[in-house]
Amino acid sequence: MSLATRERLEKAMRAGIVVPQGLIAHGRGEAFDYILGEETLPAASAATSAAAALLLTAKHPVVSVNGNTAALAGREIVNLSLAISAPIEVNLFHRTRRRERLIAAYLKRLGSEEVLGIGEAASNAIRGIASQRRRTDPRGIGQADVVLIPLEDGDRAEALSRDGKKVIAIDLNPLSRTSRAASVSIVDNVIRAIPALTDAYNKMKKMPRDRLERLASEFDNQRNLAKAIQEMIQYLRGWA
Ligand code: PTJ
Q: What is the distance in A from the centroid of ligand 1 to the CA of 64?
């Protein structure tokens, strides 16, 4: 992982976008990235195609953003949101008005027209979540059928799935509750995964709808997670 990435996070923490806990989360992610060889492996690419198929067939897709994601891949997230015509919603675990506004302002500076989930706009609640993460915007995650949640803790992925929404997770840890609960888990770094998802979406745009629906419905997330773990083992075997 580059020093520049760590510096970017540190700077974003001093600016109030990232919380100190975000640096700990990043350290956990880095450890998993090392055992992937810091590159996108085939299981992640397969999940990316399934995620693009889900997004292409969704009625109301929404991109959820937290502090780490904004700091690590803000520009890429804005590009994805524009490419797939899905709104961005700020959803924070450590929620404060100041952080919501800072993140929304940052994403707007990068080209996002509107950012949902700010202040009173986050008036809905997801059942079964105790944290501030339960709050959602009725125009965004509240009415979404597909939600992209990069770099999350497990509670919300489980609750969103219980509410009948399809969840696309991006998480370097294939063992996490988020990865297990999602419909499609991309085991990769958000820095690589978001542009890859935008590319896949653009390439698959012209595919017939029935083929996209098949691609999405035939994707077996648990099996693909097992494949991601196998790829990690294979990479480590090379070193051993
Ligand atoms: O900005 P907030 O207030 O919403 O808080 C964000 C954090 C990240 C602090 C909060 O969501 C959190 O504590 O998350 P966790 O429970 O630490 O989970 C983060 C997951 O993301 C872990 O499984 C990490 O392995 C993984 N991860 C960390 N960095 C990356 C990553 N996955 C993909 N790309 C990364 N760069």
A: 13
Q: How many other CB atoms sit within 10 Å of the CB of residue 134? A: 18
Query: Which protein residue's CA is at the shortest distance from atom 4 of ligand 1?
Result: 92
Q: How far is the CA of 148 from the centre of ligand 1 (A)?
A: 14
Q: Return the C-alpha torsion angle 39, 178, 68, 45, nearest 10.
A: 30
Distance CA 214, CA 208 (A): 10
- The protein residue with its alpha carbon nearest to ligand 1, atom 5, reads 93
Task: Give me the residue label for tokens 């770099």.
Answer: 151
Residue with the nearest Cα to atom 32 of ligand 1? 171
What CATH number should be reported for the domain holding residue 136? 3.40.50.12640
Whole-number Å distance, alpha carbon 228 to ligand 1 midpoint, is: 19
Count of structural domains within the chain: 1
- pLDDT per residue, tens digit, the chain (240 aa), is 688 999 999 999 999 999 999 999 999 999 999 999 999 999 999 999 999 999 999 999 999 999 999 999 999 999 999 999 999 999 999 999 999 999 999 999 999 999 999 999 999 988 888 888 889 999 999 999 999 999 987 888 899 999 999 999 999 999 999 999 999 999 999 999 999 999 999 999 999 999 999 999 999 999 999 999 999 999 999 999
pTM: 0.97
Give the domain range for residue 157: 2-239
